[in-house]
Design a protein that fits this description.
Length: about 375
């Protein structure tokens, strides 16, 4: 954009992704958490019931009456970013967008029938143009993935939990759904961060935006590498007590911790998957109907297993060690009962002796 910031064309050319499926950028944990959520007993019944009860029309009227709707004549630079983001991710219908007065920097995408994007004044004032572009892309990613439906239900249930707290077991039932939804939503944020990067196509701007969310508008006092080091220290630092505290700190949150989001996004930006998308090789929406839920769950399970295996967190390392030890013990017991151990041991011993002789011979010849 030029200095006026009102033009509809981006300041530089950005790659567009016609027909891109949200599967292209969805984090495996996002998919698996959503699959697990849908498997929660009674979730489908509750979901259908809540869909008819949610005051979506009331929400729309609330934003229309008490916020500023983004358009050609109001916040036109945000309107241009929104249209640009929808163009890049090939979202046919541009969602309505509102700016809401709030001292807390935040953005959200809600709505059942049609998504609504809401950004706060504090966020608009905090971020520069490219950082804001990543945020708008983040919210458009939520819209493309259909996350707004579950986000709306989460907001409703969180409010409902406060109203039914006095009912025996009523709050427990609601909070079970809230906890499951929060776990999914934290993972969905990682997916939307990736969508924001696909729209902004500037990983440095995405990193700056996340740093500002954590430390405010003091970039001259912050450093990206040092910020990412915090994420590494958070993951591997402490002992099992710290691992438990991490879980307890995370439970009430709807978003992952900012340093963790930055580290996850930086890792994905350097991956082969990201490069393939940028090269034009990605899943298309027209193929979504042919995708297998089982395959998605299997892929997600593999991701979780790999996360546990490679994690530096003390608790995850313990789980990995126990799992590895159990697998090793199971193998030994199986060999003991099937008699495979003796044959395998003989074969191994023979191979080892042969190898030793070969090495010895070679050494002698040398």
């Amino acid at each position: 954009m030029t200095q006026t910031g009102f033009e509809k064309t981006p300041a530089r050319d950005r790659r567009r992704f016609p027909g891109i499926s949200s599967r292209a950028y969805e984090h495996p944990a996002d998919r698996s958490a959503l699959v697990a959520l849908r498997k929660l007993t009674g979730f489908d019944t509750v979901f259908k019931a809540l869909s008819g009860l949610l005051p979506e029309r009331s929400l729309r009227l609330l934003f229309l009456s008490d916020s500023v709707r983004v358009g050609e004549t109001q916040f036109p630079h945000l309107h241009a970013m929104l249209r640009d983001a929808c163009y890049i991710l090939d979202l046919e219908k541009v969602p309505q967008m509102y700016v809401q007065q709030d001292p807390r920097p935040n953005a959200m995408c809600i709505g059942l029938d049609e998504p609504i994007i809401v950004v706060t004044t504090s966020l608009v004032e905090l971020l520069d143009e490219e950082e804001m572009r990543a945020v708008v892309g983040h919210e458009v990613g939520h819209a493309l993935s259909g996350h707004s439906v579950y986000r709306t239900i989460l907001l409703f249930l969180t409010t409902l939990a406060l109203k039914v707290a006095w009912i025996p077991l009523g709050n427990v039932a609601v909070m079970t759904l809230v906890t499951a939804l929060r776990e999914w939503f934290r993972k969905s944020e990682l997916s939307a961060d990736r969508a924001g990067l696909l729209v902004g196509q500037d990983v440095t701007a995405s990193m700056r935006g996340l740093m500002k969310l954590a430390g405010g508008n003091h970039l001259h006092e912050m450093n990206v590498d040092a910020f990412l080091e915090q994420a590494d220290e958070y993951e591997k630092g402490g002992d099992l007590r710290d691992s438990v505290l991490k879980i307890l700190n995370m439970l009430p949150r709807t978003h992952p911790f900012t340093t963790v989001r930055a580290a996850e996004l930086k890792k994905w930006s350097e991956s082969r998957d990201f490069q393939r998308i940028m090269d034009g090789h990605y899943p298309r929406r027209e193929e979504d109907k042919d995708t297998s839920v089982t395959d998605s769950f299997r892929e997600s399970a593999a991701h979780y297993a790999d996360s546990v295996r490679t994690s530096k967190d003390p608790l995850f390392k313990l789980v990995g060690d126990i799992a590895g030890g159990a697998a090793d013990m199971g193998g030994r017991l199986r060999d003991r009962f099937t008699g495979a151990g003796a044959g395998a041991g003989a074969g191994a011993g023979s191979g080892a002796d042969t190898g030793a002789e070969g090495k010895g011979g070679a050494t002698g010849q040398g």
